[in-house]
Write a structure and sequence with these properties.
The chain is an alpha+beta fold. The protein folds into two domains: about 200 residues, Gyrase A, domain 2, CATH 3.30.1360; about 70 residues, Elongation Factor Tu (Ef-tu), domain 3 (Beta Barrel). About 20% of the residues lie in helices and about 35% in strands. The strands form four sheets. It has a six-stranded mixed sheet, with helices on both faces. Strands 14-17-16-15-18-19 form a six-stranded antiparallel barrel. The longest helix is centred in the middle third of the chain and has 13 residues. The chain is globular, with a radius of gyration of 20 Å.
Length: about 325
């Protein structure tokens, strides 16, 4: 157990991080991600408020769908990346990162219901087949859809979302049934997994982490996430700054690097080409699937796939190659 975002969270279970990681890539795991926030917004003005507050356009989806979006400050920095669950006509469950719930409430209002529920993420190529043994209705919620299910007399909200690069669902269950549900999922031959595997999985999938690929001074465009920005939907917080950046040109972008060896890259190491520092690593670790070190790094220069680089820290230097992201593709 480790402290994380004000919560005590499991770093790993008995089988260990690498085993949990591979179980997700090849079978199915369950994460307790109850530290993620849930801010509930209800009422007829909720849609318009979210449109003005976040970058993506809810008109692209609809009731019963989920959408990935960004919450910016006036300078265009990504304050948080968020999943919006559009649960009912005038009900939205906004899911910020653990440490950002209060800032989201300060921006959009709403009710913090985080402490009233637990969130269990069932992920992996066999996740749906196995979770169907707990409740077939869970497995039937499609990717980026949302469903309300009566489970043992209480409302459970299920979304076809996750943070591993694999298929799966996230289940928001009231505390009264959460422990029983967690054990039912494990009894369905689904491996419990902790934060260690969650981080290496999201890195292999090149998914951003707030405070690393997103945060102060980092825009959606710099993080290669311009697809979540709907400039044509009307005004929203940070829009003017993004319009200016798009017009002048994005000064840096994230690139992927695969090392030549098992040596793990680490955050804040320098990305070097021909003796020139181009930027720094935002996330680095060992890839259990590739058996090599992998990293996401900012680069001030456009780099083609296959470009040879050095990643350095003091006298330590690791050779690698600029690679396409994600590093590991989702299992079919």
């Amino acid at each position: 157990m480790v402290p994380f975002g004000g919560w005590d969270m499991p770093l790993s279970y008995r089988s260990g991080t690498v085993s949990e990681h591979l179980a997700c890539r090849n079978d199915a795991v369950v994460f307790d991600v109850s530290h993620l926030g849930t801010v509930r917004l209800e009422g007829p003005g909720s849609f318009d408020l979210l449109q003005r507050s976040f970058t993506n356009d809810l008109n692209k989806v609809g009731v019963g769908r989920a959408q990935y979006t960004h919450h910016l400050d006036s300078n265009g920095s990504v304050v948080d990346d968020i999943i919006v669950w559009w649960v009912a006509e005038d009900r939205f469950d906004v899911m910020p990162n653990a440490s950002n719930t209060s800032s989201v409430i300060g921006s959009i209002g709403g009710v913090d219901v985080t402490s009233e529920r637990c969130v269990l993420a069932v992920q992996g190529p066999n996740a749906r087949a196995k979770v169907a043994n707990v409740d077939e209705r869970f497995a039937n919620v499609k990717r980026f859809h949302v469903g309300c299910i009566d489970y043992k007399g209480v409302e459970v909200v299920v979304a076809g979302t996750g943070y591993t690069g694999e298929d799966g669902i996230e289940i928001a269950a009231p505390n009264s049934v959460a422990r029983e549900l967690f054990h039912a999922i494990i009894d369905a031959d689904i491996t419990p997994a902790g934060l260690g595997a969650r981080d290496t999985l999201r890195l292999e999938a090149a998914l951003p982490l707030h405070g690393h690929e997103l945060g102060e001074g980092i825009t959606s465009y710099q993080a290669n996430l311009g697809w979540v920005v709907a400039l044509d939907k009307g005004d929203f917080i940070g829009r003017e700054a993004l319009v200016a950046e798009k017009s002048s040109g994005v000064r840096r972008r994230l690139v992927g690097v695969v090392g030549d060896s098992r040596q793990p890259f680490r955050d804040h190491m320098s990305l070097v080409l021909d003796g020139k520092v181009l930027g720094e690593v935002t996330s680095g670790n060992f890839s259990p699937v590739l058996g090599k070190g992998i990293a996401i790094a900012f680069s001030d220069q456009d780099l083609d796939e296959g470009t040879r680089v050095e990643v350095t820290s003091g006298s330590r230097s690791i050779s690698g190659t600029v690679a396409k992201m994600p590093f590991v593709a989702k299992k079919k």
